[in-house]
Structures are given as structure tokens and as C-alpha cells.
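Bug: C-alpha cell stream looks shifted between consecutive jobs. Job 1:
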Amino acid sequence: MDQINVLIVEDIPAQSKKLTKVLEENGYNVVAIATTFKEALALFYGAIKIDIVIIDIFLNGVPDGIAFAETINTVPNAAKPFVFLTSSTDRQIFQRAKLTQPFSYLMKPFNELEILYAIEMAVEKFYAQQNVFLSKKENTVITDDHLFIKKGKSLKKVQLLDIVYIEVEEKYCNIITEKEKFVIMISLTKISKLLNPNIFTKTHRNYIVNSKKIEEIVPADNLIMLSSNHHVPLSEKYKTMIKNLHTLK
């Protein structure tokens, strides 16, 4: 992406001014500042191009920032990444905010590097990988021997046996093949249920490997060496997977 357009949803002028200064000094384009729920919706669905939203959870003392995030999540094809900023330490507020799946949840007063890193990571995850699923309608299509992964405006066929391993990262799964990396919005638990358990095995709470790609297992180092110089961790909990492999002693 060239210049990234940011919508700020913040009702305190001093805070929005400080945030705008930091963003613009680092090459971001603040296209608008909304101070209310209605104003935020009007700007978000208006004619202005918005790439990412920074949302204050409390607007005029009410958690309308969460309500705004909940609303824009109801239209998957119009989805945009967003980051929460708040001074609230209320656990219930955090739990409600978490359900909207923000890319980051940052506390005020914000740290300049933290906000810049959060925005950069959100933009990279959401836009740099053109094959990220945006809605359930665009979900993975899996058959007995291959799957289709959204890439740009098309679905790319990927042979299941070409997958080396799958890694979960927050709400995404990274699917690693010999030649490519794909990012999909699906939980590791869900995708593991769609794969053949005789071939794909869990080695760690965050990893599933293709057992046909295993080249070496080093139990003492909690490590599995895979083809193409890949390696993944092997946690104590999943060392029983070794029993399912054909081994000679």
C-alpha cells in the first residue's frame, strides 16, 4: 500500500491531536476524526477511503467505541482492521471488546512505538496477504486431497500433501507449503477438524504438521525438523504423536 488512511474515533481533542501528530510524522494520513458513534459510522461508510481505524472505547463516558466496532463487523465485505485505545481497566469492558476481534488493545496514555507497531502489524496482516478470508462465505474449500484458498479475487488450489505445517497466530492460521505461505482467518481447532488426522498431527498447541514432511524428530530438544529447512516445536503434551509413527529401535 502507498499512504495509509486512518480514521480516529476519539472524543478528547487533546488525545486526537496528539495521536494525529504521531501518525502524520510517521507517514500516515489521518483522513478524519470522529467524536461520536454516529459520526464514526457516517465517516466509515462515507466516501472517504479508510484503511484502518483507531478507536477510543469510551466516547462521552459510554462504551460506544465497542458498539462502533460491533457494527462495522456486521458487514464482512466492508471490514477494516481496527485498534482499540482506552484508559479503562474494567475486565468486563475488555471481554466485550475482545469479542469484536481487534488487532490490538492498547492502554492510555499510549506509547508512541506501541501504537505505530500495532498499526503496522494490523495493516500487514490485513492487506499484505491478499489471501486473507474476510467472511464466512469466502471460507476454505477442502476436499479429500486439496483445498482452495482465497488469493486476490480467485481461489487457489493447494494440494493438502504440499502443506508442510500450519501455525496459529492470534486469530489467523499460517499455512506453510514448500513454495508459499497463506494466511487465513480460521482457528487451528477448526482447521484441524477438516484435515485427515492420519496425516496431519498436532505437535504443539499452536502447530499442526504434515507427518509425511517430517525428516527428523529430536525429543530431547522438543523439536521436529521438516522438509525445506522448516522446523516446529514439539511440546511435552504432544510427544505421544511419536507412537503413531512407524519407528524402528
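Job 2, same session, no restart:
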Amino acid sequence: MSELKTEEEQIEAFKSWWKKNGMMLVIAIAVAVGGYFGWQAWKTNQANYTSEASALYQNLVQASADLSDENNQKTVTFIAKQLADDYGDTGYAMFGQLFVARVDAENGKYDEAIKALDDAIAKTKDISFAAIADLRVARLMLQKEDYAGAMARAEKVSAEEFAAQKQELIGDILIAQGKRDDARIAYQKANEALGVGVKHPLLDIKLKDLVKG
């Protein structure tokens, strides 16, 4: 009898506890389950969102293969704008601006190209992207024969992985000013930054031309 009484007491105790806490437990479980499925749905949406941006970017890259074609230029500009408007928080939108600048440069609109790159730089904290954009701005300034501006932008690049590109560009700027000795030093630094065993045929040609001169 004592065992039966104990079981009855346990049942009654559970009923009493459920009356006080049962609803809260149900709610807690519902919230936990809902949170799990909500998290899974969010992850799925994020994956779809990124996938859509990636597909658009691939189309942009394909269209940019021949920017001498006016239709391709329009396609690049349209897709880049769509990326900026609808997927502005992705890297695809950021890199899309590099192609907008290429379209402007193709049409000789160097100031517009520089603005597109500067706008992209202002919106990112990515050091590598900023370095790529700064190097492109420097090349555009070189095209404009703004040698001081080009040099300032090239020297702004601090990322070590772009040291070779930076020094080669500095050499190009110096060559444009007729400073052959300084240019040779810059090209040599670029060659050293490439590392042992890495070949850069165009850089080799530039160095040989200066040695001959």
C-alpha cells in the first residue's frame, strides 16, 4: 500500500506542477522548435540570396569579356546596378563596380571611372579590394597624365600581396615622365616581389628595354 500511495502522491504532485508550469513548458518548447526551423529557413534564404548574386555576377563577367561591344557594356552596367541595388551587402556588388569603371574607361570617361572606384572603396573595409581599386585608379590617372595623382594612389597600396603590381605601376608612371633610372629600380623591386621562380614576361621586357637604353 505504501508503494501505491507513493505513486499516487507522485501523480498528484506532477498534476499540481503541470497546472503551474505546464503551459510555460509548452510555450518554451514551441519557441525552441520554432527558433530551430526559423534558423534553418534563414540559412536557406541566405544561401539562395548569395546564389542569386553569384549567378548575376557570372553573367556580368561573361558580358565583360568584350567591352568593345556596346551591348555588352549596357549589360555590364545594368547587372552592376542590380547587384548594387538588390545585393549591396555582398562582395559581388562591390566587385561589380570594378566592371562599371572598366566600361567608363573603355569610353574614355576616366573621371567617371575613378568616381565609381572611389565610391566602392568608401563602402568597404576589405584591404585587398581597396588595393585593387587604388591600383586601377592610379592607372586611370596615368592615362590622364596626372602623374602626381597616379603616384600618390599607387603608393597608398600597402597590402603585401600587391607589392609587385604596385612597383610595376610605379615604374610605368616613372617611365611616362622619362625617369628611366628610377623606373628600372621600381621594376627590379617588382621582380623581386614576385618571388623566386615566378615569371612575368611583360615585366622582363620592360627591364630589358631599360638595360638596352
